[in-house]
Design goal:
The complex is a heterodimer of chains A (411) and B (605).
Chain A lengths: L2 E5 L4 H6 L1 H10 L4 E7 L3 H4 L8 E4 L1 H8 L6 H15 L6 E4 L4 H10 L3 E2 L13 H12 L7 H8 L20 H8 L4 E6 L11 H14 L3 E6 L5 H10 L2 H4 L2 E3 L6 H10 L2 E4 L3 H8 L3 E6 L5 H4 L7 E5 L25 H8 L7 E2 L2 E9 L2 E5 L6 H4 L1 H11 L11
Parallel strand pairs in A: 1-2, 1-4, 2-3, 4-5, 6-7, 6-9, 7-8, 9-10, 10-11
Antiparallel strand pairs in A: 11-13, 12-13, 13-14
Helix pairs in contact in A: 2-8, 4-5, 7-8, 10-11, 10-16
Chain B lengths: L2 H12 L1 H9 L6 E4 L5 E5 L2 E2 L6 H13 L7 E5 L5 H9 L5 E5 L3 H8 L12 E3 L3 H11 L3 E5 L1 H4 L3 H17 L6 E5 L6 H14 L3 E5 L5 H6 L6 H25 L4 E5 L6 H9 L3 E6 L9 H4 L5 E4 L4 H9 L4 E3 L16 H7 L1 E6 L4 H6 L10 E4 L22 H10 E6 L17 H8 L4 E4 L14 E3 L4 H10 L2 H18 L2 H15 L1 H8 L5 H6 L7 H5 L10 H9 L9 H13 L7
Parallel strand pairs in B: 4-5, 4-7, 5-6, 8-9, 8-10, 10-11, 11-12, 12-13, 14-15, 14-16, 16-17, 17-18
Antiparallel strand pairs in B: 1-2, 2-3
The chains are: A alpha/beta (411), B alpha/beta (605).
Amino acid sequence: MSRALLIQLARLGDLVQSLPVLTALHSANPEQALDLLCPSPLVALGELFPCVERVFPWKGEQWHELATKRMTDCEQLLVQAKQNLSDCDFPMYSLAYNLNNHPRGILAGHVLSDRVVGPGELGPLNQTLPAWAGYLRQVAHDRGSNRVHLADAFCGLCQVFPPSDIPFVKAPVVPLPLELERLVYGESSTVIGIVLGAGDADRRIPLSVWQDLVAACAELIPESYLLLIGGAGEREAALALENRLPATYLNRVVNGCGKTSLPELVSILNRCQWVVGSDTGPLHLGAMCGARAIGWYFSRARVHETGPYGIGHYVWQHQGGQPRESLDGHEAKTAGSSSAYWPVMETVHLMREEQVDSTTNEWDLWTSHRDEWGAFYTRDDEPEETVLRRKDTWKRLSQLGNQDFKVEVSR
Amino acid sequence: MDVLKQNVGILRHQDQVLAAQILQVPGGTLSLQTAKSGMPTALVNSRYLHSAYDPVREAECWAEERMKDCQAGETLVVLGVGLLYHVQALRRVLSHDHVIMVVVPDLSELADCVSVRSLEGWGEQVVWVAGSMTDMVARVTQNAKRVRILSYEPAAEVHHAAYEHFRLQLQDRLSQQLSGALHIMVVGPIYGGSLPVARYVVNALEALGHRVSWVDHSPHYAGYQNLDTIRDQRLRLTVQQRMSETLSVISLAHVAEDPPDLVLALSQAPLTMAVLEQMRRKKVLTAMWFVENFRHLTYWQQMVTGYDFWFVMQQAACLDAFRKAGASQVSYLPLAAEPAIHQPMTLTPRELHEFGADVSFLGAGYRNRRHILPSLVGHGWTFKLWGNEWDTPGALEAVLQRGGARIDTPTSVKIFNATSVNINLHSYTGEGFDPEGDGVNPRTFELASCGAFQVVDARTLLPALFDESMMAVITSPEHLLSTVQTYLHEPARRMAMAESSRKRVLEAHTYVHRMKTLLGAVGMASPDRLGAILQGERHAVSLLARSEKSPELIPILKQFPQTDRVELVDVAKNIRKKGPEGKLNREELLILMMDEYRQEKRDFL
């Protein structure tokens, strides 16, 4: 049986956005075993992905450590590099799908397989991009009127159409910390995940805004519990948020920041009805775990490229760049917190299934849908012309694709 | 068979002369006792060289600790004999690829040892190095390329002076064999006396074939000086401190961009402890050449653990002070001259008119100079005083030139050349000569390098650098006037002495000599890192010879000139030259992968 490998060496959000292409590749060729190569800290999540047979860690730290050894000559480095690789026990791959347009992904693809699809498919030193990779780069650069979602563009990159079913990450059976266990397995109630952190500082939402949202949810959504989600880096912010909240709300807030592994996070997100946050990995993971996501997109985040994947998610897209309030950290700005508008109440209304205006103070509301060309977002449920043009994009880019590796192009 | 007889047989097998000598020396250096474990132990001057309880276990611990640093291909040179438990333990823990040499400065000590401790089973696999100092050094350098010195301190201390001498000679000999080129980053000060030294160091290292990156902070001097406009002293000091910290981070950014093998800082270089610690975390070796009087400028005490290597211009008390303060490696390295700058020259009549004098002094107005120099005023010769910090000069006002302006290097060379008798008084904050005066100032070397005659105050370290046939050395201020008078009337003698002093500079006291010594010391202390590179082990030819485990590298390495230093970055660059259509094998791909990670600058700043 032939084996293929999908390479995704980027961060959590990108790995989650790679789930549709894994699903699509598996559907297109169910006989072919499909493995995943991802950063070692994310392996535990990759192992929960359906259709992935084996997950291999990419040990960036180990490579860095080796490459910056100062007492070792080139030959010794090479011997050690070969040893490190052999310790991972990679099988032979007939095909490597590379989703990363950077040298590490490209080189990893060529080290592990003779045939690479995606960036680097014309050779490890050939910088000519495949059509879909060129499209993604152009989108990142020009911010045009594209409507093809990143997760679907990954499918295009791998020469498959978007999956017919929306992928879903099931909750693993894992023991949870007591307070989280009560929430997950306790009485039925509405659990709202609040994604506090963000990898990039400019995507962080001020604590004062979270404070307003938590208070509004506690007041207006009966029987709701607010679950604070984040890594160890968000511990302090979560504690600061808890300190800001009136004591009456505290029994409605569960602080999970820095307390969960990735499988535990998946387990918790499976229990959430809603998950709210900026364009971050946990928000996307929440969407893949069955929660409905409400994203607050600002700075460089664009709903059409990286909105939560699937149906029934919402994104508040800021019309300009950054809102006026500083987004450079969690510090409260007593004077500035009222100077910028955040769609807090509108978000609560959405969770209460109430009517909301699609444009509110520089924020536009977008709703997610899906068709045979993948996920897309509309305002007022009206597909724009650009949404309808996705089919043309698919046809054009598929025709430009590498004919040698073409798996499926017609639909 | 008794132990001595058996041991002599073992030694004879390797060195007949040594074996014969052992039988002839009287012994008695070591006082022998029985340890609690029943094994013999030894004392010298009532100090134990080995444990009084269990010398075997103690030696095993010592050997296991040392073994962690030892790398393949190194020759281990052990200093310290005693009863050789440590050597036996070392031989046991190391593979047979490692050559172990034991330096024996005193045959009597070895004779004591071999009369009670058997060499059987391990002594045959040790190289015994005895004889004159020159012979011992030659024996090591002839047989070993990459040397790691292991000192068993309790026993080495007994012959401290001999071992220090051995170390220096070995270092000197090894530094003559260096062929590899390093990338050295020189970090200079913002201003001050060590700034020109930094320039000379850069020139010398380049002349030796090393790649030098100079982090020159002198362009920031104007900004630093401008901080003097802040009147509040505490505020000004705080801002100056912050500026130094910023310059330190700038130095770190340069290191991050192009990591050197060694960062060499000159005194007053703005490198903070935090930045030095970060460099250590990033595995960059650091050295400081402290060209200051350690008693006058004491900031080194706060920095002493920050640098991997210290080089100082004073000996004994200075070395002790640094070691006590926590310096891991500290060595004596006197100042020097740059003969391309400080050289004899012919002056124009106009220059002779301005700079010429029978007697001159060039330097800042330290207290001792203000006290001593007036004795030279008002005689039948011309006396000129040059330099700054001479406000309220008193009796010296009439001879002070250019209103006490700072004199730059080219002008100083003209002054030295145009003066019959140059006075060189080392700075001191007291009234006479510094009673602790040891280190020799740069002026001594610079005057000599110009072929200019000088009268200099005595320094304890001067005789090892220049002798009295090269300059007039005075031991007290009272001798100054008479010495000047004497030499003013003996131009031929002056010229001959000055000539000899210049010759000595060219032979032994240029910055090129100093940098050779410095790199020799650094290389010997880190044989697996800088030592290996300095010995040429990163040359293409050397890598080729060792590429048996990765034969795929051979065609790549053959593309380089044989004596070029080849690093990962160079190999990667060559692979990339294959261009877009290039087909790469697995090894080439892995090299490119490592090169990608090598370029990562995360966490550096």
